[in-house]
């Protein structure tokens, strides 16, 4: 943590002591569980290049109230955007990822219902979202990655052809999947809002599609039942999955997560309906 972050924590939580470290180690975010003032709390501190804390604080201040009221999301205690620091109340439960609940359709029914409540809070029409998303993806394809040249060319051509149609944006979690859900008895709760942003609702379906839905259609059916409708129109869903595939391959390469990077390459190959190229294998970094 920075000196400023430590100063703020000393002011906010003068008697705090660390109970556990929940940091991933791949990104510039320190996550620790502490005990202070007779309560269990979670402290998140971002590094110099971190953008997640600002988004997480916005989510707490603008969008999380419906979940906090029902005990499905943690309550914000302290936050400072400039210092990239926040403190929330500890939320009871065990990560769904790796737990038997990850294979239980009831988990996904609850997750779908929770997401529907989150998305229904507000909506806005944005004439620039599609253009900005397209420009970001083209920039990613121009940057460092290990997507093979033929696939890169095909992806660039497809992304360049996307329309500038108005997009309906809603509050989205941005990483909606079992690693950000907790199971507490039979109750599903939600954590980690560092990717929360206004986006099309279907973007919160993407990470489930490539993982849990792909391995068990019953989980997808339960999720749609909980959500109430299936918002995945073909054209928007195609753009969403291409965005997810490129983002996975590029981000994972940048942070050195080789398994996740290969997952991105497999997604791209499936979308382009071609074998995984040999030069997309690890050990052949591209400038």
TrEMBL record:
Q: What is this protein called?
A: Phosphotransferase
Annotated Aminoglycoside phosphotransferase domain ranges read 39-236
Specify the species: Metallococcus carri
Pfam families annotated for this entry?
APH (PF01636)
């Amino acid at each position: 943590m920075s000196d400023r972050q430590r100063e703020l924590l000393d002011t906010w939580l003068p008697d705090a002591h660390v109970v556990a470290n929940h940091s991933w180690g791949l990104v510039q975010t320190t996550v620790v569980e502490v005990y202070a003032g007779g309560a269990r709390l979670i402290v998140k501190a971002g590094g110099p290049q971190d953008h997640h804390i600002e988004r997480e604080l916005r989510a707490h201040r603008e969008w999380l109230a419906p979940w906090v009221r029902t005990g499905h999301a943690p309550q914000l205690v302290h936050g400072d955007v400039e210092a990239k620091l926040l403190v929330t109340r500890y939320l009871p439960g065990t990560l769904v990822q790796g737990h038997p609940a990850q294979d239980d359709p009831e988990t996904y029914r609850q997750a779908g219902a929770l997401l529907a409540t989150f998305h229904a809070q507000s909506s806005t029409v944005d004439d620039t979202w599609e253009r900005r998303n397209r420009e970001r993806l083209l920039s990613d394809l121009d940057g460092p990655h290990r997507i093979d040249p033929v696939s890169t060319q095909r992806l660039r051509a497809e992304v360049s052809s996307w329309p500038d149609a108005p997009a309906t944006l809603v509050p989205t979690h941005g990483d909606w999947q079992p690693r950000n859900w907790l199971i507490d008895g039979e109750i599903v709760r939600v954590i980690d809002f560092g990717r929360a942003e206004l986006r099309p609702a279907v973007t919160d379906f993407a990470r489930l599609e490539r993982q849990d839905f792909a391995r068990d259609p019953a989980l997808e059916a339960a999720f749609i039942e909980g959500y109430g409708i299936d918002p995945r129109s073909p054209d928007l869903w195609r753009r969403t999955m291409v965005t997810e595939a490129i983002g996975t391959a590029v981000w994972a390469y940048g942070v050195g997560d080789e398994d996740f990077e290969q997952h991105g390459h497999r997604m791209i190959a499936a979308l382009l309906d071609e074998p995984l190229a040999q030069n997309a294998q690890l050990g052949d970094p591209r400038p």
